[in-house]
Specification:
With 136 residues, the chain is α+β, with helices and mostly antiparallel strands. The protein contains 2 helices and 7 strands, in the order H-E-E-E-E-E-H-E-E. Bound molecules: zinc ion.
């Protein structure tokens, strides 16, 4: 089975409570070498230490010309190993974004965390179209 019908991860890395899942995915995963590491755009693959589920983690930060903290956006998308073969060090941002958009089109759940320049952090499970904010 694929996509929305597929089972992803375990009760920890896919905790229905998005804050709990975020905490687990931020602390209890094995970080791999970042594939892209720029000051405002980072891509890495992480693995849940409990179940071995792989995730693509994308961090982007917008430059807020109005001052204050820059808005930050993180997407954590589960993926099977065979879906990640294109993600080698030096991969282009465009390849990463297109791959993730293709993966998300099948309706798999992903964790999204928004940290706006003003207001509170919002973390949620979501599905469907993946959109990344413009970054520097
Ligand atoms: Zn897991």
């Amino acid at each position: 089975m694929q996509g929305g019908g597929e089972r992803w991860g375990c009760a920890r890395c896919h905790d229905p409570d998005p804050e709990q899942a975020w905490r687990w995915l931020s602390a209890r995963t094995q970080p791999r070498q970042p594939l892209i590491q720029e000051s405002h755009f980072m891509v890495s693959v992480t693995i849940c230490i409990d179940c071995g589920q792989r995730f693509v983690r994308v961090f982007s930060e917008q430059i807020d010309w109005h001052g204050g903290d820059d808005p930050q956006h993180t997407e954590i998308v589960p993926a099977r190993p065979d879906e990640l073969t294109a993600l080698t060090p030096g991969v282009s941002e465009r390849t990463v974004v297109e791959l993730l958009q293709r993966l998300c089109a099948d309706g798999r759940p992903r964790l999204v965390r928004d940290w706006p320049s003003s207001g509170s952090i919002h973390t949620a499970w979501t599905t469907g179209h993946l959109w990344l904010p413009r970054h520097d």
